[in-house]
């Protein structure tokens, strides 16, 4: 399944028991009971504990939102430090993926690991505010090279043998 339960699997007009909610997300029943202790509101305090689907969706969405940390312009998220940081020396490389978007890559000033941030080429001025963005040239591909491949015999004798 996944680490984070997907709230779209919940039917909002249905009620779920603790066991049904656990099976829905492939979790243990105690996980759902922990959610109730953390703020998931059951319909009432009677047994069996019933949870309204709409309340389950709201709880899971709020839980996911609370764990997210937005990056302000000029910052990138460091996975090792678990916080948004300004890149070391404000230096960033833009690595294109498509014609319109790519990744920004920089070093974390605290731990030295690579930080990455997806950015549209058109939004680089907003996302990379006050950063020195470099556009490194891609390495040339073998097929674009004028020199023959090392494992290719381009001697006239070999070519004559291929074209009898």
Largest sheet: 4 strands, mixed
In total, the number of domains comes to: 2
CATH fold topology of the largest domain? Arc Repressor Mutant, subunit A
- The percent of residues in helical segments reads 25-40%
Order of helical and strand elements: EHHEHEEEEEHEH
Distance between the termini: 60 Å
Please list the strands of the largest sheet in the order they lie side by side: 7-6-5-8
Radius of gyration: 27 Å
Shape: elongated
CATH architecture of the largest domain: Orthogonal Bundle
Mean pLDDT reading: 86
Give me the count of strands: 8
The CATH class designation of the largest domain is Mainly Alpha
Overview of the molecule:
There is one protein chain. With 164 residues, the protein is of the alpha+beta class. It has helices spanning 18-25, 29-38, 53-66, 124-127, 156-162, and strands at residues 15-17, 50-52, 76-78, 83-85, 91-96, 101-107, 114-120, 132-134. It has two domains: 7-66, Arc Repressor Mutant, subunit A (Orthogonal Bundle); 76-134, no CATH class. It is 26% helix and 21% strand. The chain has a four-stranded mixed beta sheet, with no helix packed on it. The chain has a two-stranded antiparallel ribbon with strand order 1-2. A two-stranded antiparallel sheet has the order 3-4. Strand 3 and strand 4 (83-85) form a beta hairpin.
């Amino acid at each position: 399944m996944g680490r984070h339960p997907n709230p779209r699997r919940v039917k909002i007009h249905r009620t779920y028991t603790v066991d049904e909610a656990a099976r829905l997300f492939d979790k243990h029943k105690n996980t759902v009971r922990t959610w109730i202790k953390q703020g998931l509101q059951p319909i009432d305090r009677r047994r069996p504990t019933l949870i309204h689907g709409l309340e389950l969706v709201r709880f899971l969405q709020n839980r996911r939102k609370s764990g997210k940390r937005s990056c302000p312009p000029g910052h990138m998220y460091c996975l090792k430090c678990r916080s948004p940081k300004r890149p070391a020396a404000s230096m960033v490389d833009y690595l294109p993926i498509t014609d319109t978007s790519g990744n920004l890559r920089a070093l974390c000033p605290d731990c030295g690991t690579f930080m990455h941030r997806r950015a549209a080429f058109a939004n680089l001025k907003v996302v990379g505010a006050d950063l020195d963005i470099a556009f490194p040239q891609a390495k040339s591909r073998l097929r674009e090279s004028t020199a023959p491949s090392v494992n290719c015999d381009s001697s006239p004798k070999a070519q004559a043998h291929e074209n009898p």
